[in-house]
Specification:
alpha+beta; three-stranded antiparallel sheet; 6 helices
């Protein structure tokens, strides 16, 4: 909704109410409107990409290069938000140098959340389904990464992981939102 500055200020000046009831005085609201209209317009942008990842086997897979190839040139500064649109996989940031990290991830989470636990009632989709949902909830569906100097500002040894918790997970879809200027 577009607001005409002069009409808004004129309307506010004619209002009568108890400022204790409202929380803002006319002067405060007037200043807020003036500040809003006097702000410099930034060259901000928002872009979104829906990326379909190939099917990966169960495990932890570095996908940093797949994401950066699909999104192309980044703004000078901003943030990248990556959201996976699934309930049995996760997105995480962790060490990208030593492959044993991936093995340890899998070993630890399989020990923490085993398959075929008798407490599970959601079992119709296979013995790996409920553990996949639990693991996904623990690790999460999204990560946010700062952009600096036109690049993802990841640490030296950090990479973006697809954490696939199903044996037959299939192709996964991530939504990448870039906010920057």
């Amino acid at each position: 909704m577009w607001v005409d500055k002069e009409k808004a200020l004129n309307w506010l000046s004619k209002q009568r109410y108890n400022s204790a009831d409202v929380g803002y005085t006319i002067k405060s609201v007037t200043n807020i409107i003036k500040n809003f209209f006097s702000q410099k317009k930034h060259n901000s942008m928002i872009q979104q990409y829906e990326i379909h990842l190939p099917a990966f086997r169960k495990g932890y897979h570095l996908i940093t290069h797949l994401i950066t190839e699909k999104i192309g040139k980044l703004p000078e500064k901003g943030i990248v938000h990556i959201f996976i649109k699934h309930t049995s996989a996760a997105i995480s940031i962790n060490e990208n140098a030593d492959p044993s990290v991936r093995y340890d991830f899998e070993s630890f989470l399989n020990k923490l959340i085993p398959e075929n636990d008798p407490v599970y009632t959601h079992t119709l989709e296979g013995s790996d389904d409920m553990p996949a949902h639990l693991k996904s909830s623990l690790l999460g569906q999204s990560v946010t990464i700062p952009i600096r100097n036109g690049r993802l500002d990841l640490g030296t040894w950090q990479g973006i992981y697809l954490c696939e918790f199903r044996r037959q997970g299939g192709s996964r879809t991530v939504m990448v939102t870039i906010i920057g200027e």
